[in-house]
Amino acid sequence: MHTGRVAALPRANVDTDQIIPKQFLKRIERTGFGPSLFFDWRYLADGSPDPAFELNRPDARGASILLAGHNFGCGSSREHAPWALADYGFRAIIAPSFADIFHGNCCQNGLLPVTLSEKAVQQLFHRAESATDGYELTVDLMTTIVRDARGFESAFAIDAYRRDMLLQGLDEIGRTLRHEPEIAAFESARS
Amino acid sequence: MEPRTLFDKVWEAHVVTNRFAGVRDDGGPVLLYVDLHLVHEVTSPQAFEGLRLAGRGVRRPDLTLATVDHNVSTGDRGLPVADQVAALQLATLASNAREAGIELHDLDSPDQGIVHVIGPELGATRPGSVIVCGDSHTSTHGAFGALAVGIGTSEVEHVLATQCIVQSRPRTMEVRFTGTPQAGVGAKDLILALIRRLGTAGGSGYVLEYTGDAIRALSMEGRMTVCNMSIEAGARAGMIAPDETTFEFLASRPRSPRGEAWDRAVEAWRMLASDPDARYDHAVVIDSAALGPQVTWGTNPGMTAEITERVPHPSDAPSDAERQSYHRALEYMDLRPGTPLEGLRVDRVFLGSCTNGRLSDLREAAGVARGRRVASGVRAMVVPGSQRVKAAAEAEGLDRVFLEAGFEWRNPGCSMCLGMNEDILAPGERCASTSNRNFEGRQGRGGRTHLMSPAMAAAAAIEGCLVDVRGVVRGRG
Ligand code: SF4
């Protein structure tokens, strides 16, 4: 269960080129991408934060839940995108829909993608907009429910396998390796 | 037996276990065996590092193939790599490949090139196989009747360690292109028209199978262009059933089977086509004869129009949510609703990428450029998809056609498709590009990308503006 401040980014089709532009993909580590998150939107040409960008608003400071429009994370398969979001401090992303590869990449990194209906997300945008000094949400993976302190509540769906992985923080490779005999049998059957 | 689709057949032949990880419900993921794992420098270093930290090895280096493409310079290969961070990434892949015994086509290899160009070229891409790569445009390989999906770096590590991926079964969509396209309308136009129709998320959760006369008539290069951009419609993969065109393409490739083994392979590949009564979860039909050349006007590949159309108004957006996107896109692209697309001035032209960097693409563009000159003030570059493409193009004199027309002729790599190297747009520059993504800043911060076919891009270079290639070719007389 996670409770945290919401950063609202009311844009659709946010692609991974925006989340982490290519010039930052040359690193060979998984960490340190947070400062480059949304680089082209976040900073002005002179390197100072763009006050007009949603994440730079004072009420989004310290946010750990990102609220966004549909088809979030479309485009490239770069896992640098969830690495950057997680490194920045996000623990969950709420949107009406996610791009396929990005969704999988988030789960691999303990960053929870929460799919809510378009209507529920619109409601959250309104609530975030009208809360003047920051808006908080609670995302509960156990009960698969998102709620705020003022009566908003909505269930979300996530497949059992992913939920399990996220809750138990399981090493997926280790899990697959338990099927080693089946993999070996498959290999020898076709060679 | 139930009639099955091409996808069903490939999927079912690769399920290692469907009692995976104790999750029993039908919608749950299965473990799928991977026949070919393609690796490049940008999405692999953290995966190899992860293996090392866990004390794990690479299970099947013989089913893994690596190349460098994303961050390589397309300039003089005789010089050391100028970008130190990029150089480290290249060196890291080289040492990882050496250590694991993985075949690598490094900068000095005659087979170096964009990962999705060299796989098919070498005959590593085979019908009926499961192919993965830490790259979204892995869908390209589906042109051969393979199930080819893009994966993230954690999954790259997973495949290196286990030679399997965890996948939940996608739904299937038949995309049928009927009729015969007009002259000047090709594979790129078919796929852009589809993405316009479906939207960038319309294929989400699906594997697309392309069928119909217009697909059958395409060369393998054209089919790869179509499958390549399946991901831009949000699809997991795109596939085309193998046929004589496929077999002919593969017949003499370095890694293709020979002799009796070849005959057996072809026999098996013929069985892959979807059964006549196979059912898809969804179907779309597009009359290819009705399509004109397509060009994107906005900041995602769904924002496409015919070259004869005008820049749309936000109120033309298909939904409320999209209206906002239209606003933003028009502002970013510096376009006014109602402006004719034809006649928009361009500063740059990019011919290349895994979508359109193959020999037939270069021929198509050279056909337009031959005997003409790039308009003054326009910088146009041609970046072949691989060393083999480059050599073949030079053997038939295409390099001279381009150079005489005033194009730059560069070394293979992803180049300005994503601008990880020095090939980028300056802020505000407008570019006619044969690549696959027109996202904000994709080709350089503030750069404005219009996606189109190689013929259309070459025509834009000559005219200095977006132009209907049908008129340009006719005008040649
Ligand atoms: S050419 Fe472009 S789309 Fe293709 S692999 Fe390279 S960067 Fe990706």
Please outline what is shown here.
The complex is a heterodimer of chains A (191) and B (477). Chain A is 34% helix and 16% strand. By secondary structure, chain A is α/β, with parallel strands linked by helices.
Explain this structure to me?
The complex is a heterodimer of chains A (191) and B (477). Chain A has 191 residues and is α/β, with parallel strands linked by helices. Chain A has one domain: Aconitase, domain 4 (Alpha-Beta Barrel). Chain A is built from eight helices and seven strands; from the N terminus they run E-H-H-E-H-E-H-E-H-E-E-E-H-H-H. In chain A, strands 4-3-2-1-5-6-7 form a seven-stranded mixed sheet. Chain A is globular and about 60 Å long. Chain B is an alpha/beta fold and 477 residues long. Chain B folds into two domains: 279 residues, Aconitase, domain 3 (2-Layer Sandwich), CATH 3.30.499.10; 183 residues, Aconitase, domain 3, CATH 3.30.499.10. In chain B, the strands form five sheets. In chain B, strands 5-4-3-6-7 form a five-stranded parallel sheet. Chain B has a five-stranded parallel sheet with strand order 17-16-15-18-19. Chain B has a four-stranded parallel sheet with strand order 11-10-9-12. In chain B, helix 6 links the parallel strand 9 and strand 10. In chain B, helix 2 packs across helix 5, helix 6 packs parallel to helix 8 and helix 13 packs parallel to helix 16. The longest helix of chain B is centred in the first third of the chain and has 17 residues. The radius of gyration of chain B is 22 Å and the shape is globular. Chains A and B meet through helix 4, helix 6, helix 7 and helix 8 of A and helix 2, helix 3, helix 5 and helix 11 of B. Bound molecules: iron/sulfur cluster (SF4).
